[in-house]
Design brief:
- The protein is an alpha+beta fold and about 300 residues long.
- It has helices spanning about 20-35, 45-60, 70-80, 100-105, 110-120, 145-155, 155-165, 165-180, 235-245, and strands at about 10-15, 40-45, 65-70, 90-95, 120-125, 130, 135-140, 140-145, 185-190, 195, 200, 205, 210, 225-230, 255-260, 265, 275, 280, 285-290, 295-300.
- The strands form 4 sheets. It has a 6-stranded mixed beta sheet with strand order 2-1-3-4-20-5, with helices on both faces. A 6-stranded antiparallel beta sheet has the order 7-6-19-16-9-10.
- The protein starts with 7 loop residues before the first strand and ends with a strand.
């Protein structure tokens, strides 16, 4: 475990995050410095600039820890630069839902989170990768296809800032009323073919904050837990949402089933709405697999 004086922290904050506050971000940086860390704070004006700054910081190989202040999509963007390195990814959860913060046990109070980072609580995890026709994208928590992807794509930044994670509930109602699902096929690593209207390909347990949809986490394993939703219609969406709200996961007999697999192939006759870690995507992935190298993260059991 590193001592406090050995922690050189690159702190990247996204000003477009749902709970961003420049004052809070600056205070968090000062708390880290008072705890003995060498901190470089960067508030990036755009996604492109954030990726550029993150790439440059990792290439320098000066920093030992990378604290990301943003939502799950920002975290996944930055994690892509750290896969296969010995550097540690930590969180300052200021996004809308902060699913990864719940998944990794990150303290919500800033003082407690600083203590967690400085203690050096870490764990090795295995992210996933979504393979599109002309690109591959990393995701850390989950991917969603079908109505789950449509829900994320329908949420506006303005609504997220106003309502927080409840904006996804409004979007879910809109999708339930107007989205016309298109069946597609999901093929698991054993060759089993499932015809579905939606699928959630997950590494973790939580969804939209602290709602548990999976029985266990697959973060530390080179595999996914996949929820296959086979029935369409507003009734299906309502029953699945109610099951999650009642803390019964998203496995509802007759509507959905869960499988564990190390890879997934997708076959569809057209584009299927897709989200990765809460960010809507252009196009539909044709495959999902586990990243070839692990990622070290700040994790509290």
């Amino acid at each position: 475990m590193m001592s406090a004086t050995q922690k050189r922290i690159f702190f990247l904050a996204n000003p477009r995050a749902g709970q961003f506050s420049r004052q809070r971000v600056q205070r968090f940086a000062r708390l880290l410095e008072r705890a003995g860390a060498d901190v470089t704070l960067c508030v990036s004006p755009s996604r492109q600039e954030a990726l550029k700054q993150m790439r440059h910081a990792v290439e320098e190989q000066y920093f030992t820890h990378y604290v990301i202040g943003g939502g799950d999509g920002t975290i996944a963007d930055c994690a892509a630069f750290l896969v296969g390195t010995p550097f540690v990814l930590c969180l300052h959860p200021i996004g809308t839902a902060n699913v990864l913060a719940h998944e990794w046990g990150v303290p919500q109070k800033d003082h407690d989170n600083v203590a967690h980072i400085m203690r050096g609580d870490t764990r090795m995890i295995w992210p996933g990768q979504a393979v599109f026709s002309h690109r591959t994208e990393l995701f850390v928590q989950m991917a969603g296809l079908g109505w789950d992807g449509a829900i994320v794509q329908a949420v506006s930044l303005r609504l997220k800032r106003w309502m927080g994670r409840y904006a996804y509930g409004v979007s879910a109602l809109k999708v339930a009323l107007f989205y016309r699902s298109r069946p597609f096929k999901v093929i698991c690593d054993d060759g089993t073919v499932h015809q579905v209207v939606s699928a959630i390909i997950s590494k973790g347990r939580f969804y939209a904050g602290s709602y548990q949809i999976m029985p266990i986490s697959q973060m530390g394993h080179a595999r996914f837990h996949v929820i296959l939703i086979k029935k369409r219609g507003i009734g299906t969406i309502i029953r699945l949402v109610m099951s999650v709200l009642m803390k019964k996961t998203m496995m509802v007999p007759g509507l959905s089933e869960g499988v564990v697999t190390s890879s997934v192939r997708v076959m569809s006759s057209g584009d299927v709405p897709t989200q990765l870690d809460g960010d809507g995507q252009d196009g539909t992935p044709h495959a999902f697999h586990v990243a070839k190298a692990p990622l070290w993260v700040g994790y509290r059991e």
